[in-house]
Amino acid sequence: MVEIIPSSDAFDSGRFNSFCKKNELSFPQDYIDYIKEYNDGELEENLVDEFDDISIRYFLGTTGETYSDLEWNYDCFLGRMPENACP
Q1: Inter-CA distances, 8 with 1, 47, 85, Å
Q2: Which of 4, 33, 55, 67 is 20 to 30 A (C-alpha) from 10?
Q3: What is the pLDDT of residues 35-86, one digit of tens each?
Q4: For residue 86, with 0-12 CB atoms within 10 Å meaning exposed, 13-18 middle and 19 or more buried, which class applies?
Q5: CA-to-CA distance for 73 and 7, rounded, in angstroms?
Q6: What does each C-alpha distance from 70 to 1, 51, 52, 53, 64 come to in angstroms?
């Protein structure tokens, strides 16, 4: 089992709810429970070890850090992601 290292930034529920409302998104309760506990949460090790050029080290939360901030990544990739890539 992969260990998740909690974020040093606390989850900001107001910011998350505002982001969801603005973009008309709703996330599964499992994801909401996860980010409430870990926020972005760093993985102890890469989840993908079969490919050299793929790395999954963070989930997205409300950090303000570009590499792991949900809103920043959504805005950055909007129009480049397949439709319905976000719930």
Answers
A1: 22, 21, 27
A2: 55
A3: 898 888 877 776 666 666 666 777 788 987 888 888 998 898 888 888 777 7
A4: middle
A5: 17
A6: 24, 25, 25, 22, 9
Q: Check: CB of residue 1 under 8 Å from CB of residue 43.
A: no
Residues 24 and 37: beta-carbon distance below 8 Å: no
Alpha helix ranges (H) inside the chain: 13-23, 29-38, 70-77
Pick from 85, 49, 82: nearest CA to 70: 85
Token pair 């930034």 is found at 9
